[in-house]
Amino acid sequence: MTASPAASPAASPAASQAPRLAVESVDVILGHGWRATKILSGVDLTVWPGQIVGLVGETGSGKTTLARAIVGLVDPARGRIEIDGRTVSTLRRGARRAERRRGTVQLIFQDPLRSLDPDLTVADIVAEGLRIRGGIDRDTIGELVLGALANVGLDASALKRTPGQISGGQRQRVAIARALATQPRLLICDEPVSALDASTRNYVLRLLDDLRGSLGLSIVVISHDLSSLAGIADRIAVLYRGRIVEDGPASQVFTAPRHPYTALLMACAPSVRHDRPFAPYQLRRSGADVVAPVAGEVPAAGGACVFAPRCPFAAAACAAQPALETAGRWWSVACHRHQEWPALARERERACPSPAWPAASAGEPARRR
Questions:
Q1: In the structure, what pLDDT confidence band is assigned to residue 71 with cuts at 50, 70 and 90?
Q2: Given a cut of 50, is residue 279 above it in pLDDT?
Q3: Exposure of 233 in the CB half-sphere (CA atoms within 13 A)
Q4: pLDDT at 354
Q5: d(Cα 68, Cα 62) in Å, to the nearest integer?
Q6: b/e 197-215 (16+ beta carbons within 10 angstroms → b)
Q7: Which of these, 262, 261, 245, lies nearest to 253 by C-alpha position?
Q8: % of the chain residues with pLDDT over 70
Q9: Average of per-residue pLDDT across 220-226
């Protein structure tokens, strides 16, 4: 397994700790024969107890497929997945069913309205996993259900309601409560706040941050919203076309990314310009001031590196796919030129500066030329 960062400095594991989740060199192929498509290729990911890891990447990069592989809904074609030191990727049939019933790993789906049975009450939805596990009496199930709802800020008044009778934010909290009822060790959240309004989104994110401390959970959050992860994630892992291209401390990945694709994601993340109150959202630049490639610019030296066709810094070395290698403490990157491209990006910026913002006229927001 290629070296990858164990944890961020803010959540460094003790020497005696074992990782909560270890994904080693995992390939996932969907389909058969001529329809087979390789979705994940050589993915490595480590999550330690009490840690929140953000998994980011554009649509189709393999984020949800990785989540499904971790919970056992997809079989890896190669590699190994371990939970608390136990290999779970090779389990089949009865052994896999028994592992799922333990509830050690829980997946929170992206759309709570579709993932919750519309005909069941909140009480039945949250208790479902406990009943499937078996060996728990009715009174104990009731106590665990109430405890799970209390953990997400809901009380007994919600027990008899159906998903259609509660708000979107409450449905998301019910989905989280259902996952918490089995007392998991690892929580996989697939776009948990994408369908929520701003205030509810912040509440759910703070809730996840509180739960990892109070319950000792390890959490993987899949998200397109980079600003959501900035406040809660210890580490950020970046997927591009089925490969991890960067994995490092969140605060540093957001401000000074080591991979050009990560820098492009950061540059495309909207932020509010506080010094220009009338300005619309602006594309936020990374610490390296990287500029996006010009449309149609495909480096002639592009090759096996999956990002080379879009990378303005590709060179002859990029004809070989780079492996994840250490780029700093707790930090790994898969880029042959991770030490060179930031300086090249600054040169590009000096040679072709971005257009200036026009002054806002009275009563009218500024528009970018």
A1: very high
A2: no
A3: 28
A4: 54
A5: 10
A6: eeebbebbbebbeebbeee
A7: 262
A8: 82
A9: 87
Asked if 109 and 117 touch (Cβ cutoff 8 Å), the reply is no
CB 271 within 8 A of CB 281: yes
The CA distance from 282 to 269, in Å, is 8
Q: State residue 80 phi and psi, 5-degree precision.
A: -145, 145
Give the separation between CA 161 and CA 171, rounded to whole angstroms.
11
Token representation of residue 291:
């500029």
Alpha carbon distances (Å) from 347 to 20, 193, 287: 43, 38, 14
42-to-20, 79, 125, 328 alpha-carbon distances in Å = 19, 8, 36, 21
φ, ψ at 272 (rounded to 5°):
-90, 130
The pLDDT assigned to 79 comes to 96
- Find, among 322, 292, 295, 294, the residue nearest to 306 by Cα: 322
Total Cβ atoms within 10 A of residue 18: 11
**Residues 179, 176: Cα–Cα separation, whole Å:** 5
* pTM listed for this prediction: 0.82
User: Which long-range contacts does 318-324 make (Cβ < 8 Å, 24+ apart)?
Assistant: 321/243, 323/2, 324/2, 324/3, 324/4, 324/44, 324/244, 324/247
Domain boundaries, the chain: 16-250, 257-351
The encoded tokens of residue 13 equal 């594991």
pLDDT at 2: 41
Which range among 33-37, 116-120, 156-160, 309-313 shows the weakest confidence by mean pLDDT?
Answer: 309-313
C-alpha 292/C-alpha 206 separation (Å) is 33
Distance CA 328, CA 4 (A): 10
What is the amino acid identity at position 308?
Answer: A
β-partners of residue 80 are 24
Neighbour count for residue 248 (Cβ, 10 Å)? 27
Of these ranges, 223-232, 297-306, 353-362, the one predicted with the greatest mean pLDDT is 223-232
Note the pLDDT tens digit of each residue in 258-271: 999 998 888 877 65
Judge: domain 16-250, CATH 2.40.50.140.
no
